[in-house]
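Hey,
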Amino acid sequence: MVFGSFVVDLMGRTPHLPVPGETVKGSMFRMGAGGKGFNQCVAAHKAGADVVMVTKLGRDAFAETALGTMRQLGMPMDRILYSETAPTGAALIMVDEKTSQNEIVVVLGACSTITDEEVEAQRELLKECDYVLTQLETNVSAVERLAELAKETNTKVILNPAPVQPVSDRVLANVELITPNEVEAQILTGIPIDSKAHADEAADWFFARGVKKVLITLGERGVYIAEKERREILPAYRVKAVDTTGAGDAFNGGLVAALAEGKDLWESARFANALAALSVQRLGTTPAMPSREEIDKFLEDHPS
């Protein structure tokens, strides 16, 4: 299961990102399905995972963007929740067409109104799942209840702590694997991730709070992976990026897909690296997620 956000991405490309008070003429606009949870679920689905999306939409036109994408991709739609009052979420995305860097404002809407009762209603589904992947782009109370419920159903929790915000020790104690990027890891632990030694310290901080495995994405430097007995940095693939929006989501979706197939954490991270490397060579978020055939071909062409 992927439990998390859906928002409609409203993306514009521009010669440079505006400074406060500046208006910049954009070169392109695109609207499409997005949100960290939805992006991750699409990535996992297209990578071949047997995955179900749990998210919450409004009763509005933007909701059809989610439903239409799911129909097109053949994704299960029976776990979609609805708010009668809050709108479907939206994200305003600006992408610098020269550097591929981006700035994003997310308005969560319905995704910030998930109730404990709506989480509890997923109990039977969780019993069927090996993993549940979640983020912090819904109301945190829903993530807290989900983590407790997953512990009761013996479902492994993967937490992608983004957008970064405080996470209680009670939640961390129920997390199998945490997947922050280097900035998120520093904010959560107070330790700058500027060396492997400092990454080791951050991993120990998470371990002390009950997290069993730690994976910190390091951008161009690769991925730091820590289990109690093994800690290494897996190098990133070198590709020419066109749009880095959603790269972290691509990685997390690929990671859960590979783990659910029984791959170990290291092989799963390599698989996720390949998926992310393919995604940044295309525009957008969900449209940029590659197929399983493309991922397997990339790995074949880039042996470790």
